[in-house]
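User: tokens in, sequence out, please.
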């Protein structure tokens, strides 16, 4: 197994380690990022054919230029020091394929073959549980695990009532009907709404949703009897960004934080933990997961609950779901989706006066938001043409009962956040 060449990137505090890692992998060469302080044993355990010292200024502005540890400097492998060499694609390619003679064999198909074999060895005939959110990571994990162990996998999808239009049905169609995965869908909509009755504070909403999710999930897991492994959709940036010096703390999936500690599993399975997001999408595509899932934009764990301002009611959520569906469809069919990383509707808790059929109406104000972002830490408003916005606003305000006004959010992050709550 692991019959592909490996390169180790030593990160000296650069903001570009991930960028270089992605560039290397695009050449079909597997690489891992280790902290500059990694021991020689740690480095050699990966059996690398070469090293990249990511301490250069050439591709960034904020590099901490630390010296190479004396033991690391003695490693007898070809190395590319990005402090002294430019890190353009041609250098990289010459170095990896030319100087180091590495074979570009790390493809998504190779990853799948290797991972499926490893999962089979790890899991054997035991049972596996996966919390399906319908997001890219958990979906691709489900497809991988299904290929590896088939019916030994059970996925549980908790419908908390804050999904977008048609999503619960889509999840069932893709994974249960399409893949033939054991998928348990739990309709917990009423239960969540009753817990959230009268709650206005966004952070309290999040907390209640998180806790209730765990409770519902635990109850369902108990019904399934003994389960051995729990799947976690950790991806590589979760590991790299959790910080080297802080140790190995890995961000748990937003929806399932705390679960593995509460249910006694024999182990955790993290099949995509060495992949970047785009690679997860590629693996999904190669496994036959449809684009409606692999190309899905990021969606918060508490879903529409943080886009429906004020108290959550079934009526408000239904209005928001419709408005959101219309906006997304309009934006996609007008060809603007590629310019935006996240685009959605928000139900503001403001009601305004309007007019319909010569009569006065009193309805909700819907806000539309579309942003462009690299890292979700900062974001820019997508300057959608006003004619497009007028058209979309018209469809929403005339097509949905209870809505009579639509506004476009033109605030960058910062000072705003992407979500409204
Ligand atoms: P903000 O609103 O902080 O969002 O600019 C940054 C990114 O994080 C997502 N987000 C969440 N994701 N649970 C999640 O899983 C949450 O509670 C949550 N709040 C925000 C948001 O959609 C954006 O991509």
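Assistant: Sequence out:
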């Amino acid at each position: 197994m692991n019959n592909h060449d490996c390169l180790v990137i030593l990160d000296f505090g650069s903001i570009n380690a991930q960028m270089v890692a992605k560039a290397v992998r695009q050449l079909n060469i597997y690489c891992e990022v280790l902290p500059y302080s990694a021991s020689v044993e740690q480095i050699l355990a990966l059996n690398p054919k070469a090293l990249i010292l990511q301490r250069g200024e050439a591709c960034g502005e904020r590099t901490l230029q630390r010296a190479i540890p004396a033991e690391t400097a003695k490693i007898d492998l070809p190395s590319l020091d990005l402090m002294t060499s430019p890190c353009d694609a041609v250098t990289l390619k010459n170095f990896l394929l030319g100087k180091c003679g590495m074979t570009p064999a790390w493809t998504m198909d190779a990853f799948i073959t290797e991972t499926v074999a490893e999962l089979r060895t790890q899991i054997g005939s035991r049972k596996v549980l996966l919390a399906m959110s319908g997001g890219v990571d958990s979906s691709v994990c489900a497809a991988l695990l299904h290929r590896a162990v088939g019916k030994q996998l059970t996925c549980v999808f908790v419908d908390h009532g804050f999904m977008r239009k048609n999503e619960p049905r889509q999840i069932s169609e893709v994974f249960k009907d399409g893949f033939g995965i054991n998928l348990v869908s739990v309709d917990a909509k009423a239960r969540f709404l009753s817990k959230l009755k009268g709650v206005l504070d966004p952070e309290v909403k999040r907390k209640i949703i998180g806790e209730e999710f765990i409770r519902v999930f635990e109850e369902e897991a108990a019904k399934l009897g003994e389960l051995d492994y729990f799947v976690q959709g950790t991806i590589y940036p979760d590991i790299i960004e959790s910080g080297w010096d802080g140790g190995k703390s890995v961000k748990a999936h937003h929806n399932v934080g705390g679960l593995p500690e509460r249910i006694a599993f024999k182990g955790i399975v993290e099949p995509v933990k060495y992949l970047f997001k785009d690679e997860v999408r590629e693996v999904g595509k190669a496994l036959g997961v449809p684009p409606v899932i692999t190309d899905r934009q990021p969606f918060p764990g508490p879903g529409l609950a943080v886009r429906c301002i004020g108290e959550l009611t079934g009526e408000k959520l239904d209005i928001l779901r419709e408005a959101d569906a219309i906006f997304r469809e309009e934006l996609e069919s007008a060809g603007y989706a590629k310019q935006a990383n996240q685009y959605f509707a928000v139900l503001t808790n403001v009601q305004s006066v309007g007019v319909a059929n010569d009569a006065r109406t009193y309805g909700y104000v819907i806000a539309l938001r579309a942003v462009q972002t690299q890292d979700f830490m900062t974001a820019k408003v997508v300057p959608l043409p006003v004619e497009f916005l007028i058209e979309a606003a018209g469809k929403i305000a005339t097509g949905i009962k209870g809505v009579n006004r639509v506004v476009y959010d033109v605030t960058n992050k910062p000072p705003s956040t992407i979500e409204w709550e």
